[in-house]
């Protein structure tokens, strides 16, 4: 047993040295908080990197059609059309039957119709018929001047037809192009359900800019609508990793719970939600 | 994480204070957990050792093994005082000197008990402070954030849930973190205080036992 003051001090020092220190515990606590923060932030878990799917064009307002034809996919010009003649919305989807019954022999009108994007197959027959009609006349009195004039006319017609075909193939040619999908091959003016849904979801989607720190968020959702156009189910095929973004997508999908007109059969579409595009 | 980064400066400051509270609280929790656990284990071992040996000299030799036990500190201080008293009585003093020696030992034990209790209770006040203030600090951050949010609504003129909800959720983060800091602090404070009370009781008992032995020694 120590009796002197020096021994007592040594004993106390020795005891304090063996005691755990607050500094070391602070370090441990900081490490604990960091690990917790990383776990909560999802940085410790590995993330699968998937190739980015192509961005979709989502600026449509039109009602969807079952067999969209090629044309202008943006709905801005169409909106104005709608405002001008609201009752003729059905007309827009079926413009072809009307011009068909009107027999118009004048070539000018045929050309304008081609520019508007109607089927070139109908137009093809008309110049042929004209040529056939001119042939017997040329056989009767085939003067050289007349022949040259006819050839020039035919050449002109051929060029105009090519121009019309080019204009029809350019989906963003202008406001005169019919409303359709970029790569549509159907017969109806308007967009398919997929593009229509994308636009509807975009309009229904809402999320504050302050809530998302990254702009490269993407999610893939499969939506199912029944034949009557009611939303039956939706499921995330790939989540973005950001809960708030995913929730906002779910809200947007739930808000578009009805398709007009109904598709007539169960519709199953996979929609890619890209935050950048949604914020545009 | 995005929510926190997107919050306003006042809310961020509040969050920083709360994180500081949480970090220090957990450091104290870890420290106290080790200190009190060791104190309890070594006290039990020391009591066994103390009652096994009947010679104070032999107990004094083995004290180094129980340096974390508050009972060993009590014994050490009392024994030192006893030795000093014995040296005095050898010089001459009689029964009055014997009584004075017992008092001195009692005072030494009381002093040692107080200092050991203080050592065990050190930093616990910070836990109590965290437990009682962190929720209010968080609440302040929430109120400020919601005020900010409403200000934004006034500016934009839109009050739809989609516009209001983000700001409010940002603000509520402050309350959540305040509670995250406060709950462990309160739980740990209550736990440690009860453990310290147990140790203090043990120290009191040990003091009484030791004084009895000292008085018996004086009578013999």
TrEMBL record, chain B:
Cellular component GO terms, alphabetical: plasma membrane
Give the signal sequence positions. none
Location(s), subcellular: Cell membrane; Membrane
Tell me the membrane topology, using the record's own terms.
Answer: Multi-pass membrane protein
Coiled-coil stretches are none
Which GO BP terms apply? bacteriocin transport; cell division; protein import
One Pfam match: MotA_ExbB
According to the entry, every stretch annotated as the MotA/TolQ/ExbB proton channel domain falls at: 100-204
Q: In terms of domain of life, where is this protein from?
A: Bacteria
- Keyword match Transmembrane: yes
This protein's record includes keyword ATP-binding: no
Give the transmembrane region(s).
13-31, 123-147, 167-189
Keyword list (alphabetical) reads: Cell cycle, Cell division, Cell inner membrane, Cell membrane, Membrane, Protein transport, Transmembrane, Transmembrane helix, Transport
Q: Which family does it belong to?
A: Belongs to the exbB/tolQ family.
> Mind telling me what this protein is named?
Cell division and transport-associated protein TolQ
């Amino acid at each position: 047993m120590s009796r002197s003051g020096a021994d007592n001090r040594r004993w106390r020092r020795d005891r304090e040295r063996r005691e755990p220190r607050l500094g070391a515990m602070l370090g441990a606590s900081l490490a604990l908080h960091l690990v917790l923060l990383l776990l909560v932030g999802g940085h410790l878990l590995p993330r699968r990197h998937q190739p980015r799917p192509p961005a979709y064009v989502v600026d449509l307002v039109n009602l969807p059609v079952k067999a969209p034809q090629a044309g202008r996919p943006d709905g801005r010009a169409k909106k104005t059309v709608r405002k001008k003649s609201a009752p003729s919305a059905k007309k827009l989807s079926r413009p072809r039957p009307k011009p068909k019954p009107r027999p118009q022999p004048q070539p000018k009108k045929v050309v304008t119709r081609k520019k508007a994007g109607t089927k070139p197959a109908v137009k093809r027959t008309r110049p042929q018929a004209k040529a056939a009609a001119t042939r017997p006349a040329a056989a009767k009195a085939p003067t050289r001047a007349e022949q040259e004039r006819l050839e020039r006319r035919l050449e002109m017609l051929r060029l105009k037809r090519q121009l019309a075909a080019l204009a029809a193939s350019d989906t963003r040619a202008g406001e005169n192009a019919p409303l359709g999908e970029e790569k549509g091959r159907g017969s109806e003016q308007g967009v398919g359900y997929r593009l229509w849904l994308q636009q509807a979801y975009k309009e229904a989607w809402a999320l504050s800019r302050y809530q998302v720190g990254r702009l490269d968020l993407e999610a893939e959702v499969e939506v199912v609508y029944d034949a009557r156009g009611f939303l039956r189910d939706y499921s995330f095929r790939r989540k973005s990793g950001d809960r708030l973004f995913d929730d906002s997508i779910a809200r947007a999908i739930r808000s578009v719970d009805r398709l007009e007109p109904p598709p007539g059969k169960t519709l199953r579409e996979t929609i890619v939600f890209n935050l950048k595009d949604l914020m545009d | 994480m995005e929510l926190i980064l997107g919050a306003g400066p006042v809310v961020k400051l509040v969050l920083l204070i709360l994180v500081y509270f949480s970090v220090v609280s957990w450091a104290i929790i870890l420290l106290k957990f080790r200190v009190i656990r060791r104190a309890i284990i070594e006290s039990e071992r020391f009591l066994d050792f103390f009652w096994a040996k009947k010679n104070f000299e032999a107990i004094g030799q083995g004290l180094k093994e129980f340096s974390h036990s508050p009972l060993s500190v009590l014994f050490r201080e009392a024994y030192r005082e006893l030795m000093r008293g014995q040296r005095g009585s050898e010089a001459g003093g009689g029964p009055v000197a014997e009584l004075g020696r017992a008092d001195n030992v009692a005072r030494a034990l009381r002093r040692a008990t107080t200092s050991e209790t203080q050592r065990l209770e050190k930093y616990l006040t910070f836990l109590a402070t965290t437990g009682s203030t962190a929720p209010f600090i968080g609440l302040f951050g929430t109120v400020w954030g919601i005020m900010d949010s409403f200000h934004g609504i006034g500016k934009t003129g839109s009050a739809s849930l989609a516009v209001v909800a983000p700001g409010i959720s940002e603000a509520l983060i402050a309350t959540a973190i305040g509670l995250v800091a406060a709950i462990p602090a309160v739980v740990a404070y209550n736990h440690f205080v009860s453990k310290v009370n147990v140790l203090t009781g043990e120290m009191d008992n040990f003091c009484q036992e030791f004084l009895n032995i000292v008085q018996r020694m004086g009578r013999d």
